[in-house]
Amino acid sequence: MADADFGALLTRAFAGDQAAWRALVHGLSALILAIARSYRLGDADASDVCQRTWLALAQLPSGLRDPARLPAWLATTARRQALRVLKNRDREVPTGGGETADAMPSPLPSPELSVLSSERDRVLWQAVDRLPPQHRRLIRLLATRPSLTHAELAAELGIPPGSVGPLRRRALDRLRRALTVQGYDHA
């Protein structure tokens, strides 16, 4: 098709002629896709560039000033859309394998790591069980319900809210000393 033909089709398309839109899309989408692919975009991104380019044309309030320049306008718009895709790609954080982060299975720990974690947890809770009752109860609350506020912890323990911080410090210091005696370094 000649540029003049594109101009006539575009004028008809903006007047509401759906056949003219189909003819334009059929005749010029290859140009837009070629430009998008020249930016090394994959098929999906190239198709998005093509769709956005046509959408930008359709959303022009009064069409093009010179409808005969349609191929040049589409080429320029396709280049800008391709650059926009590349710019947005720099902001994306890959999650691997095309899956969402939530859908990706977490790697299983090695058997050695599982045994070491289990042993660490066992020793920790044995040390907690040897703490005085109020310290033990505070540590368990901190471990199982970390969202409790000082006031809520105080209500659970039956102590004034201002006593929670000092009690927590004493309980954790006592637990740290007990674990150090057993050979566990807090660092």
From TrEMBL:
UniProt keyword annotation of DNA-binding present: yes
Ranges in coiled-coil conformation: none
One GO process term, biological-process aspect: DNA-templated transcription initiation
One Pfam family recorded for the sequence: Sigma70_r4
Region annotation (Disordered) ranges: 89-112
Sequence ranges assigned to domain RNA polymerase sigma-70 region in this UniProt record: 26-91, 127-176
SUPFAM superfamilies in the cross-refs: Sigma2 domain of RNA polymerase sigma factors, Sigma3 and sigma4 domains of RNA polymerase sigma factors
Keywords of this entry: DNA-binding, Sigma factor, Transcription, Transcription regulation
Superkingdom of origin organism: Bacteria
GO molecular function: DNA binding; sigma factor activity
Protein family membership: Belongs to the sigma-70 factor family. ECF subfamily.
Protein name, per record: Sigma-70 family RNA polymerase sigma factor
Lineage of producing organism: Bacteria, Bacillati, Actinomycetota, Actinomycetes, Pseudonocardiales
